[in-house]
Target: Cobalt-zinc-cadmium efflux system outer membrane protein
Amino acid sequence: MCVRSRALALAVALALLPASALHAAPPARTLTLSQALNRAVAASPGLTAADREIRAAAGRGLQSTARPNPELAFEVDNAFGSRSKRNLDAAETTLQISQLFELGGKRGARIAAASAEIDAARWDRAATRLQVLAETAEVFARAAGAQRRVAELEDQVADLDRLTPLLQKRVDAGASSGAEISRGRLATEIARVELGKAKAGFLSARRELAVLIGEATPSFARVGGDIRRIGAPPAFDRLLGRALENPQITRFTAVKAQRRALLAAAQAKAVPDITAGVGWRHYREDKSNAAVVSLSVPLPLFDRNQGGIYEAQETVAKTDAERNVARNGLIILVGRAYESLRASYDEARLLRANVLPVAREAYESIRTGYGEGRYTLLELLDAQAALSEASLREIDALIAFHSTLASLEGLTGTALVLSTKDKP
Model:
């Protein structure tokens, strides 16, 4: 999955980076998507926890190979009693070492369960890594969109500011009333309010991105990339096939192997183990010695671990149901994300191809005509507002496109190859 994760990071980076940025160093204090992804992976506490869990599972795997320790026993019999056994004169001293021998494949099942647990932990780590990449790319897209919104509103405010001399000139010439200056100032101040909100939104997204890359406060002033680069997504069936290879689904293979091994261990537990011992006994009364040999086997009359076996069987059977739950949920999420991606792509494309050119042409025409006295200020402001609304709607669609793209790539676990026919 490392190869797919690198492909995901590269593809999303290429989707947002302009062509010139692929061969040029980023400006100072500008964070690129590839930098954000790399730093997010390095700083993610979720991945740190996943790495620790893999090591913990490896420790349990090491422990699973250990054999039972031998037991050393020391006994004193026929001592501290009465009459001839009052002291230690008739004492019998025994020193014995015993060893438990596991039967029924207990050790092998224990090792198999621990090995499968390590595999499951690694799949969980791969799924977590995809989530980190997708979340970081999504937040980066929102930050890039908020940055673009700020630039758009700054242009709008600057454009309105440039109207002031023209308004004053018309008033001085008697072509307009002084109320038009107040109306123009009102439109400018409203645009400044929207600009302030947009800046606050960018600061919020920048701070969120900083947290994801491990910074308490953002060390970057801007994010790099061109959010206007979009492309048609591939067919849904192809995405769905890739989604079913997501670590969130494939991990159940390791989970089922682990649970089968636990079932084997539960079944092996029903087989009694043997404890064998050998020792030395000393008879103080006549100063003689003798060997001691012992062999003990539990009789499985009452406890044959029936409940443990039944529990393990049901746990194994539950794995398929859990996998189907995860599979159905993933299909639903991929379907929603895909339709959202298609909708935002179509909206951005239509706005760019049909709405924005018309709105821009209308505004330029009315602006020119206003200077010639053919249009009123209200008509000019309406045209400017329509152009601004169309531009901001395109930005919203672009943010939705790239955010959904990041989510979809996280769900499918692979990079999406988009059509390059759509140019900014």
Q: What stands out?
A: The longest strand covers residues 92-101. The chain has two domains: 2-67+102-270+305-412, 68-101+271-304.
